């Protein structure tokens, strides 16, 4: 069984952390992953930086720009991760935009992920129909879980389609926004969280966008299986470097 | 076979590569745009505004002195005479009416040279809609007159501070705005780019250009089809409109002129067909300038309107299929061609448009060839650049 599915079957709420590979420094990738695992993080999304991250706010965009400037590439990331499974056992997901994956070659990309021990991919701009028509077979052939997003605007009908096409979890975007732009949840979010919970989907949901601390983590995971923190962690790295990863990670689930 | 299929593909190019956050809006547009465009009331209102407000039909003018100089029969399609000074307004009129039909109340747009921003601000003023235009910080500085026009028209101009701070980044910011405002907002894309149905919708709104050329040329030459149609290409909206009704007429040669910047091989260029590879930019699969690693690279052109690292999916298909001939003109060639047009015909073109006129540096036509050039915009906004370049002070 894929590590993601195993983790989703475990008890308790899951904390997933996103970071941009190559930031703050080019070779921080492995240390960040190891420190996050050591400090109780359940799953990691490794961001493959892209020049034009149009679903991201300034925090992740700036970290992507910096990472590219530092010399991060797809090849470089795979090289950094080649021995990661010797020291890390939690699920690892590569998250990025579709063009770098396309240029690397979709099959070569999936094959490499499989060899390294990557468990899944999230490509927000690889839409459901293109995935099913062109890439599903390849992604599944290499045992990767492909994760789709839903938003408060996604219709029930489409959520059902996405649920059918998914084989891991559904990435539930908390509000109509790019990453990092809103924090805290109001009535609108609570209602949306409840609506999704009542749909009894086959895939568990993990909430992303707008989670930054213990309080928002609790709110987001009241109905969902887990929550993802991205921009808040990047901000932490910007301020503290890689030194204080443990205290950040521990503060969320406390 | 040169038009978009149901999923928005032109051959292998096009489609809608969008994050789920944009799906409801883009899907709503995809489902409705053709029905709306075919509605009698919509057509009537669109055509009425094009006539009374934009000033269409734009003349098809026989350029006698330019024809003598280059040894063929040259006609100019005078999009520069449209209200706001370029072809851009054909599309913004169509899209503002579309936005109203969809019940949207807030309009966003991206702009490079500011022509599309001005055309959008204009129709928003006309319809009393809120208007926010994203523009790269660098373009705001180099296109100050158009920034002032947009503000005069009541639009908010928001600078894009990220990346190269030009058109590509303004487009990213507009897309982000749309993600953040999914319910009340319509995004008026100005070029034949973006996720399906945008390239097809923009092309259809601009197709009035070639529709008019057909009957105007019939009046003047006794035939609807010229031997060649020529247009400059950045994203490719004026080219798409100029070619549209000739795509399936094999006797009409289709010519595209891209911006070579300082030269295709110099690393400072926007000649996408020569330098690009297939990839995904702003929601569609098309030719784009990128690194081996799939990072989108920064283009360069003296003209802000052609300073874009991609080209519309229809044009990628026309290029790959061989239906269109692609050329590229350097800054110098475009500027010189702009000066020549000014002094032979008394028409100062936009620098973007100057690239189309540089075709004569690259291709020799036969004396009886009828060549229609899309004069996509006027040069008022570029006077400072011309004056500096030619030392006319």
From TrEMBL, chain A:
GO terms of molecular function: tryptophan synthase activity
Key words, A-Z: Amino-acid biosynthesis, Aromatic amino acid biosynthesis, Lyase, Tryptophan biosynthesis
Pathway it works in: Amino-acid biosynthesis; L-tryptophan biosynthesis; L-tryptophan from chorismate: step 5/5
The protein's Enzyme Commission number: 4.2.1.20
Residues of the active site: 45, 56
Classification via PROSITE patterns: TRP_SYNTHASE_ALPHA
Catalytic activity: (1S,2R)-1-C-(indol-3-yl)glycerol 3-phosphate + L-serine = D-glyceraldehyde 3-phosphate + L-tryptophan + H2O
Family: Belongs to the TrpA family.
Subunit structure: Tetramer of two alpha and two beta chains.
Function statement: The alpha subunit is responsible for the aldol cleavage of indoleglycerol phosphate to indole and glyceraldehyde 3-phosphate.
Protein name: Tryptophan synthase alpha chain
Species per Swiss-Prot/TrEMBL record: Maribacter algarum
Lineage start: Bacteria, Pseudomonadati, Bacteroidota, Flavobacteriia, Flavobacteriales
UniProtKB/TrEMBL annotation, chain B:
Gene3D superfamilies noted in UniProt: 3.40.50.1100
EC number(s) from the headed UniProt entry: 4.2.1.20
N6-(pyridoxal phosphate)lysine sites (modified residues): 88
InterPro entries (alphabetical): Trp_synth_b_CS, Trp_synth_beta, Trp_synth_beta/beta-like, TrpB-like_PALP, TrpB-like_PALP_sf
Pathway: Amino-acid biosynthesis; L-tryptophan biosynthesis; L-tryptophan from chorismate: step 5/5
Span of domain Tryptophan synthase beta chain-like PALP: 55-377
Cofactor: pyridoxal 5'-phosphate
Record has Lyase as a keyword: yes
Signal sequence segment: none
Gene Ontology MF term list: tryptophan synthase activity
Alphabetical list of CDD domains matching this protein: Trp-synth_B (cd06446)
Pfam family of the protein (one): PALP
Catalytic activity, as annotated: (1S,2R)-1-C-(indol-3-yl)glycerol 3-phosphate + L-serine = D-glyceraldehyde 3-phosphate + L-tryptophan + H2O
Keywords associated with the record: Amino-acid biosynthesis, Aromatic amino acid biosynthesis, Lyase, Pyridoxal phosphate, Tryptophan biosynthesis
An example Gene Ontology CC term for this record: cytoplasm
The keyword Oxidoreductase appears for this protein: no
Domain of life of the native organism: Bacteria
Function (record text): The beta subunit is responsible for the synthesis of L-tryptophan from indole and L-serine.
Oligomeric and partner information: Tetramer of two alpha and two beta chains.
Homology family: Belongs to the TrpB family.
Protein known as: Tryptophan synthase beta chain
Lineage: Bacteria, Pseudomonadati, Bacteroidota, Flavobacteriia, Flavobacteriales
């Amino acid at each position: 069984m894929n590590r993601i599915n195993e983790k989703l079957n475990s008890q308790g709420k899951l904390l997933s952390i996103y970071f941009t590979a190559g930031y703050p420094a080019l070779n921080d990738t492995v240390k960040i992953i190891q420190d996050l695992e050591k400090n109780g993080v359940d799953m990691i999304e490794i961001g493959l930086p892209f020049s034009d991250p149009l679903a991201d706010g300034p925090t992740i965009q700036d970290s992507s720009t910096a990472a590219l400037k530092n010399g991060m590439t797809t090849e470089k990331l795979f090289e950094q991760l080649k021995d990661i499974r010797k020291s890390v056992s939690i699920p690892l997901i590569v998250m990025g935009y579709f063009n770098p994956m396309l240029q690397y070659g979709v099959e070569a990309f999936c094959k490499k992920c499989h060899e390294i021990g990557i468990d899944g991919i999230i490509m927000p701009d690889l839409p459901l129909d293109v995935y099913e028509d062109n890439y599903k077979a390849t992604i599944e052939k290499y045992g990767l879980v492909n994760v789709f997003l839903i938003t408060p605007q996604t219709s029930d009908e489409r959520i059902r389609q996405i649920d059918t096409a998914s084989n891991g979890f559904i990435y539930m975007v908390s509000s109509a926004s790019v990453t990092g732009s809103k924090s805290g949840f109001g009535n609108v979010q609570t209602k949306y969280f409840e609506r999704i919970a009542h749909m009894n989907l086959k895939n568990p949901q993990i909430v992303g966008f707008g989670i930054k601390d213990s309080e928002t983590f609790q709110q987001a995971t009241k109905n969902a299986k887990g929550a993802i923190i991205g921009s808040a962690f990047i901000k932490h790295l910007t301020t503290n470097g890689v030194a204080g990863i443990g205290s950040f990670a521990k503060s969320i689930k406390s | 076979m040169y038009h978009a299929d149901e999923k928005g593909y032109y051959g292998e190019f096009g489609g809608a590569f969008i994050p789920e956050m944009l799906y409801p809006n883009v899907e709503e547009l995809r489902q409705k745009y053709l029905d709306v465009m075919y509605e009698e009331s919509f057509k009537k209102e669109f055509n009425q505004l094009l006539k009374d407000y934009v000033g269409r039909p734009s003349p098809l003018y026989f350029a006698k002195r330019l024809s003598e100089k280059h040894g063929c029969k040259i006609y100019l399609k005078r999009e520069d005479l449209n209200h706001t000074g370029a072809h851009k307004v054909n599309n913004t009129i169509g899209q503002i009416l579309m936005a109203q039909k969809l019940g949207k109340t807030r309009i966003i747009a991206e702009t490079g040279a500011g022509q599309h921003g001005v055309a959008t601000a204009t129709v928003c003023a006309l319809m009393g809609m809120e208007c926010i235009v994203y523009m790269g910080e660098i373009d705001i500085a180099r296109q100050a007159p158009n920034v002032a026009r947009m503000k005069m028209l009541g639009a908010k101009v928001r600078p894009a501070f990220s990346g190269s701070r030009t058109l590509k980044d303004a487009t990213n910011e507009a897309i982000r705005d749309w993600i953040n405002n999914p319910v009340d907002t319509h995004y008026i894309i100005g070029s034949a780019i973006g996720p399906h149905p945008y390239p097809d919708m923009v092309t259809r709104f601009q197709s009035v250009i070639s529709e008019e050329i057909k009957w105007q040329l019939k009046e003047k030459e006794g035939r609807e089809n010229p031997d060649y149609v020529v247009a400059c290409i950045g994203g490719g909206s004026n080219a798409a409109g100029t070619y549209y009704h000739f795509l399936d007429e094999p006797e009409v040669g289709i010519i595209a002129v891209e911006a070579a910047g300082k030269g295709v091989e110099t690393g400072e260029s926007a000649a996408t067909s020569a330098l690009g590879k297939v990839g995904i930019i702003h929601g569609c699969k098309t030719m784009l300038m990128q690194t081996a690693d799939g990072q989108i690279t920064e283009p360069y052109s003296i003209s802000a309107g052609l300073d874009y690292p991609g080209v519309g999916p229809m044009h990628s298909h026309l290029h790959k299929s061989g239906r269109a001939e692609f050329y590229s003109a350097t800054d110098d060639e475009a500027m010189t061609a702009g000066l020549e047009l000014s002094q032979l015909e008394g028409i100062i073109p936009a620098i973007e448009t100057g690239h189309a006129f540089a075709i004569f540096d690259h291709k020799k036509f036969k004396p009886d060839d009828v060549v229609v050039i899309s004069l996509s915009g006027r040069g008022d906004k570029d006077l400072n650049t011309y004056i500096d370049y030619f030392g006319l002070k």
